[in-house]
Amino acid sequence: MAFVLRLVWLVAALELLAPALPAAAALKDGTMAPDFTASAARGGTVSDFHLKTALVAGPVVLYFFPKSFTSGCTIEAHAFSDHIAEFRRYGATVIGVSADDIETQKKFSTQECRSNFLVASDPGLKIARAYDAVLMGAFANRTSYVIAPDGKVIETYTDLEPLGHIDNALRALRDQKTRS
What are the domain boundaries of the chain? Predict the structure, then answer.
């Protein structure tokens, strides 16, 4: 229990220090997004998410976050949930990813994501590493990607402040639709 409390405190401290932290390296726009499969929950139900399969249906908004149920991650989940109808208008699938276990993600998907989108478990941060979205070696960094149906990254945004991710992702989807 003490370890969990220290971990929650560390994530909260990182969120407060966000403006002072240097921007992380992330995949560049135009690069191919690494394919992955992960256990993901939506509304408490677990299924396998496969990026390549999801891209057949349209763009994917993939966002990494440090820790379920921390203040910034809850704010971000609520904001994605509040704007889910806009993402769906662009045919986009939204999926959040953190190192939390799938049991935690089941609860987070229901309580904070309001059963509106998937959250995946990335134990060991294998997916986050493939996307250059690791913070201090122990957490997923707050980095979001918009991936076009052809598998190319069309938007990359890294900032521990949670609310900019939604606006940037929606702008990228609007711009993509305009170009199409």
Answer: 2-179
pTM: 0.87
Residue 155 amino acid letter? E
Catalytic hit among 14, 26, 62, 73: 73
pLDDT in tens, the chain (180 residues): 554 444 444 455 444 444 434 444 589 999 999 999 999 999 999 999 999 999 999 999 999 999 999 999 999 999 999 999 999 999 999 999 999 999 999 999 999 999 999 999 999 999 999 999 999 889 999 999 999 999 999 999 999 999 999 999 999 999 998 887
Query: Measured between alpha carbons, how far is residue 137 from residues 99, 126, 129, 168, 170 in Å?
Result: 11, 11, 9, 25, 29
Q: Is 113 a catalytic residue?
A: no
What is the signed CA dihedral for 6, 142, 101, 112, rounded to 10 degrees? 90
Domain covering 2-179 in this structure, CATH number: 3.40.30.10
Q: Which two tokens stand for residue 52?
A: 């390549």
